[in-house]
């Protein structure tokens, strides 16, 4: 097992988080926007006490960060957010058991949606495992992303032209 450039995060802790459905659901909520405890509790239909314990564990390992925000009435609320992007690559085959954890250089907001990102990571994994037929899948994704980028630029140009 190996760990890449991730001195502040324990591989075992990351695997523990990924093995817990509730923590995966919390991460899924937080990748969209920061939330406070009662929001998470209500969305996941899990008690606030349990949510707080999960959040504390993930914050102490460095996966989440928290900050207080003032609200109109009452005391400030503690919001939780993803502290950084993490990529976990797990390779298990007859000859290998390897876990690599790396920090992504790209900002979370710039990444494609979870489904599209998953497709890309899946194709990348296939290619790295020697499944060369996946190169055609990668070419298709590149073409699709290029088309989407061009359309987004056209929309932006049109919108900015009407300001």
The tally of strands reads: 5
Largest sheet: 3 strands, antiparallel
The rounded distance between the terminal residues' Cα atoms is 54 Å
For the CA atoms, what is the radius of gyration? 19 Å
Keywords for this structure?
163 residues; Arc Repressor Mutant, subunit A; single chain; alpha+beta; two-stranded antiparallel ribbon; flat; 3-stranded antiparallel sheet; 2 domains; disordered N terminus
Short structural summary:
The protein is of the alpha+beta class and 163 residues long. It is built from 6 helices and 5 strands, in the order ααβααββββαα. It has 2 domains: 11-82, Arc Repressor Mutant, subunit A; 86-161, no CATH class.
Describe this structure in words.
This protein is of the alpha+beta class and 163 residues long. The chain folds into 2 domains: 11-82, Arc Repressor Mutant, subunit A (Orthogonal Bundle); 86-161, no CATH class. It has 6 helices and 5 strands. A 3-stranded antiparallel β-sheet has the order 1-3-2. It has a two-stranded antiparallel ribbon with strand order 4-5. Helix 5 packs antiparallel against helix 6 (134-161). The chain starts with 10 loop residues before the first helix and ends with a helix. The model is unreliable at 1-8 and 104-113 (pLDDT under 50).
């Amino acid at each position: 097992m190996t760990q890449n450039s991730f001195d502040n995060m324990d591989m075992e802790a990351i695997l523990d988080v990924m093995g817990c459905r509730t923590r995966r659901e919390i991460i899924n909520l937080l990748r969209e926007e920061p939330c406070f405890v009662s929001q998470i509790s209500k969305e996941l239909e899990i008690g606030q006490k349990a949510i707080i314990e999960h959040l504390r564990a993930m914050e102490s390992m460095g996966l989440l960060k928290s900050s207080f925000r003032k609200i109109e009435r009452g005391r400030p609320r503690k919001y939780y957010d993803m502290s950084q992007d993490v990529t976990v690559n797990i390779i298990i085959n007859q000859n290998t058991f390897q876990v690599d954890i790396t920090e992504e250089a790209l900002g979370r907001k710039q990444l494609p949606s979870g489904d599209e990102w998953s497709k890309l990571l899946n194709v990348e994994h296939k290619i790295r495992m020697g499944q060369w037929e996946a190169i055609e899948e990668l070419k298709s994704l590149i073409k699709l992303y290029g088309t989407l980028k061009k359309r987004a630029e056209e929309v932006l140009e049109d919108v900015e032209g009407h300001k």
